[in-house]
Amino acid sequence: MKAPVAPAVSRSCLARVADASANRQPPEDMAALKQWIGRNSSTFSRLTIRIARFALENPTEVAIDNGAELATVVGVSRASISRFALALGFESHAQLRRFFQGEVMSRQKKDLS
């Protein structure tokens, strides 16, 4: 019995994400992330909008949760979380998570000053 072949739509979607993020550098800080999301939100799918909104409103959750936990909390698939990270220019969800960890730590240091 032959192994099932993934639908062309999935490959096409992943190819679009890879193409879109190939020349993109990750944002330097939260302000740059907000600016990029604002400029590009009209092209986002409803799932991407949901992830982006959650990430901006709950940076600590993004910094703490692994991919599966974040996907569950947001109500999307783990693959959607990974595609969101790639679209932002990160190499993986882990790199996106480290970005948010740095932003949360930076914000906490400012609050203590």
Q: What can you tell me about this protein's structure?
A:
This protein is mainly alpha-helical and about 110 residues long. Helix content is about 75%, strand content about 0%. The protein has a single domain, classed as Orthogonal Bundle (Arc Repressor Mutant, subunit A), CATH 1.10.10.10. It contains 7 helices and no strands. About 10% of the residues have low confidence. Helix 5 crosses helix 6.
Summarize the topology:
Blueprint: H1 8-22, H2 30-40, H3 46-57, H4 59-64, H5 67-74, H6 78-87, H7 93-112
Helix pairs in contact: 5-6
CA-based gyration radius: 15 Å
Fold-level CATH name: Arc Repressor Mutant, subunit A
The CATH homology group name: Winged helix-like DNA-binding domain superfamily/Winged helix DNA-binding domain
Report the span from N to C terminus: 65 Å
CATH architecture assignment: Orthogonal Bundle
- Morphology: globular
Supply the helix-strand structural class: mainly alpha
Provide the domain count.
1
**How much of the polypeptide forms β-strand, as a percent range?**
under 5%
The largest β sheet comes out as:
none
Oligomeric category: single chain
Unreliable sequence segments: 4-12
Helix content: over 70%
**DSSP helical segment count:** 7
Number of strands: 0
Order of helices and strands: HHHHHHH
CATH class: Mainly Alpha
On the 0 to 100 scale, the average pLDDT is: 84
Notable characteristics:
113 residues; mainly alpha; Arc Repressor Mutant, subunit A; 73% helix; 0% strand; globular
Condensed summary:
The chain has 113 residues and is mostly helical.
